[in-house]
């Protein structure tokens, strides 16, 4: 059974700092990996999707990497801002059946002014 | 933003009553999903649909049923609500169920069962 783990569960940093969020998954047989952002009381916003054949994706100040063989992904946020404060969720689409997302429990990020 | 709406956005109901949540999309996407989000568990798949009248179970389907009579609407029914079904429910859509395609989420429905 695919399991997704995100460490740390919470992270607090000063504004302007570069930071890395970690995601690991137990089964490397995935189609893709997706990073989401969730603001309190809101839905999920898709940030980046990395195909299993890709190594990384970039969008603005965000860069996500994927090492499928080791079951790891990182989300790098450059020059963090208070507006980046949110919970970040990692999810994988597992192979071998229906294409369902399996989510980690998220990392709650606080960027202090 | 993907055109996904959920109704109601908030609901309080009593144990034993039936409840139906609605997800409506304007994107004409084939795949639709229902998830629940709970502290300590993250998001878990309840049911999903891969076309009109085509549905399948997810990880936590007990006590829930779904229906999809039109491409744009996916209904989630709690047949007899229990306190353990107090949660935030999210609908998601995907253009296709294949590996390349992202899922887009609705704003959520907060359900409280008293």
Short description:
The complex is a heterodimer of chains A (113) and B (114). Chain A has 113 residues and is mainly β. In chain A, 0% of the residues lie in helices and 59% in strands.
3D structure, described in words:
The complex is a heterodimer of chains A (113) and B (114). Chain A has 113 residues and is mostly beta strands. Helix content of chain A is 0%, strand content 59%. In chain A, the strands form 2 sheets. In chain A, strands 2, 4, 5, 9, 10 and 11 form a 6-stranded mixed beta sheet that branches. In chain A, a hairpin with a 4-residue loop joins strand 7 (62-67) and strand 8. Chain B is mainly beta and 114 residues long. Chain B has strands at 4-7, 10-13, 19-25, 31-38, 42-51, 54-57, 64-70, 73-78, 87-94, 103-105, 109-113. At the A-B interface, strand 4, strand 5 and strand 9 of A face strand 5 and strand 10 of B.
Throw out a few tags for this protein:
A: six-stranded mixed beta sheet; globular; B: mainly beta
Q: Classify the helix fraction of chain B into a percent range.
A: under 10%
Question: From N to C, what is the helix and strand string of chain B?
Answer: EEEEEEEEEEE
Q: Stretches of chain A where pLDDT falls below 50 for ≥5 residues?
A: none
How would you classify the quaternary structure? Answer: heterodimer
Shape of chain B: globular
Q: How confident is the prediction overall: mean pLDDT of chain A? A: 93
Mean pLDDT of chain B comes to 92
Largest interface: A-B, 24 and 25 residues
> Number of DSSP strands of chain A?
11
Q: What Rg of chain A, in angstroms, do the CA atoms define?
A: 14 Å
Kindly state the number of beta strands of chain B: 11
């Amino acid at each position: 059974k695919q399991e997704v783990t995100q460490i740390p569960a919470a992270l607090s940093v000063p504004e302007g700092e570069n930071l890395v969020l970690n995601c690991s998954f137990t089964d490397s047989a995935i189609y893709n990996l997706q990073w989401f952002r969730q603001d309190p009381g809101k839905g999920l916003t898709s940030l980046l999707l990395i195909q299993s054949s890709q190594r990384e994706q970039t969008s603005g100040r965000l860069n996500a990497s994927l090492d499928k063989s080791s079951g790891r992904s990182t989300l790098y946020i450059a020059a963090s801002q208070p507006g980046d404060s949110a919970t970040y969720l990692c999810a994988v689409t597992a192979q071998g059946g229906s294409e369902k997302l399996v989510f980690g429990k998220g990392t709650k990020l606080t960027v202090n002014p | 933003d993907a055109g996904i709406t959920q109704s109601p956005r908030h609901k309080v109901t009593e144990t034993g009553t039936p409840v139906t949540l609605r997800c409506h999309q304007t994107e004409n996407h084939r795949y639709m999903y229902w998830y629940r989000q709970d502290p300590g568990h993250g998001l878990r798949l309840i049911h999903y649909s891969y076309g009109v009248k085509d549905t399948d179970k997810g990880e936590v389907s007990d006590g829930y049923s779904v229906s999809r009579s039109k491409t744009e609407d996916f209904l989630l029914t709690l047949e007899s609500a229990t306190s353990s079904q107090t949660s935030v429910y999210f609908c998601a859509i995907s253009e296709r169920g294949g590996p390349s395609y992202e899922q887009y989420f609705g704003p959520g429905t907060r359900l409280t069962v008293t």
